[in-house]
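Re-run with default settings, no changes from the original entry. Doing this only to confirm the output is reproducible before filing.
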Amino acid sequence: MSGRLTNGYNVLENNDFPDDDSGHGTHVSGIIASETNNQEGIAGITWYNKIMPIKAMGAEGYGTTFDIAKGIIWAVDHGANVINMSLGNYQPSSLLKEAIDYAYNKNVVMISAAGNENTIQPSYPAAYPEVLSVSAVDNTGRRASFSNYGDYIDVSAPGVQITSTYFNQQYAALSGTSMASPHVAGLAGLLLSANPNLTNREVIDIIKNSAYDLGIPGNDSDFGNGLIDVKNALEAAQNE
């Protein structure tokens, strides 16, 4: 995946070495952009899209709202088209919302994990209306036992025992809405590759409207609009 990386940023150290010291970011990035058709490891969702690594959280997996907001703004200012946020907490923040608004107004597509506490309590940034919120499903099509849910969920994606790249040149199978979110971010990248003229709102709407309905008919609190459907979404993007 090294050939798919662009210059990134380490918010914590204020330098350009966003090295992963927990494995989480490497796993998420691999779901999006692992090299395809090379007979090695796994294949990412995208074919050619680049990854801009932003390190805004420490090795323990925790970070401040300030650093996350700073990372969002840096990514926007350096050309990011899609921002995946496999993170969240339960306290809304005016500072984080300002960064989300800044990115949205710059036509950036934002996707966020819903959270892993099996609660209906809204998680942020997933619950902000400018962000595409993702719950996790297992291999039977049920909402993952850990996945948060609620009326702010937009779509769902696979998030249980997902194999991907890991730090120290390993592979690992991890579970979480953190793994579901990059499936959707990868799809957003594919849509913009297929039709670069799409606005962020159009990308969000295509992903939601092309989803495969799960659960009770129509929008629901477990799956939102349903499970993402890459084929349907790409066809819709090309027809825009």
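The chain has a mean pLDDT of 95. The chain is about 30% helix and 15% strand.
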